[in-house]
Amino acid sequence: MRPVPTVLILLGVILSASLGVWQYQRAQMRLARQAQIEQAERAPVIALGDRAYSLADVTHRRVRVTGRFLTNRVVYLDNRPRNELPGFYVVMALQVSPEHVVLVNRGWLPRDLRDREAIMPYATPAGDVTVEGIATQDPSRAFELGHGGSAAGLAIRQNLDVADYARETSLPLQPFVIMQTNDTGDHLLRDWPAPASGADRNYGYMAQWFGLSLILAVLGLRIAYRRGRQQHGAGMSA
Length: 238
Fold this sequence. Notes:
Layout: H1 3-42, E1 46-47, H2 55-58, E2 62-77, E3 87-97, E4 100-110, E5 128-136, E6 156-157, H3 162-169, E7 173-180, H4 199-237
Parallel strand pairs: 1-2, 2-6, 4-7
Antiparallel strand pairs: 2-3, 2-5, 3-4, 5-7
Helix pairs in contact: 1-4
């Protein structure tokens, strides 16, 4: 077997096997993070009071808060299908006190198929209401080319960033969003999809890299075997 092909095949085996190991490690990291999220969601409910919280305080934790919905501070997140039906996520500000406001993803609302800009009617509790849910960094993100679909001032947007919305509205927002889970009589749907770890994709890539490594190894052995037979035959004939 010639030195150059041998080195190239050996490097290919090592590189592809290393990438397979890397994908395996990535999958394990994702599974560990998923386990942490599930553990946080099983932890006792945090009753949010009249103070500022950080993301680290509440992310993925179940929370409970009482306040008043600000119906003039609502954003409808577009392109959020449910069972193949188009619809919106209704994200509304909840005023806990004059100094503290939190965004609540109240649930899913079907789109009016006759008018893309129309919002189907839904109920909003008057006065103080208690909201329970899971605290997350953002209400939900969808693929977006550029930022025109999420420009400030739009009622219907593709995405919503908490910090940007705080600057836009001058609201003293907490740095997280509550994915509401309790029923407040508004007829919005809240069967939130469970967050996927993404480890399956890493396992798929891992299998591809290990498969390539195996193919290269078999190819190298086959070439070495044939080369050895040729050299042996040449020696016998000499």
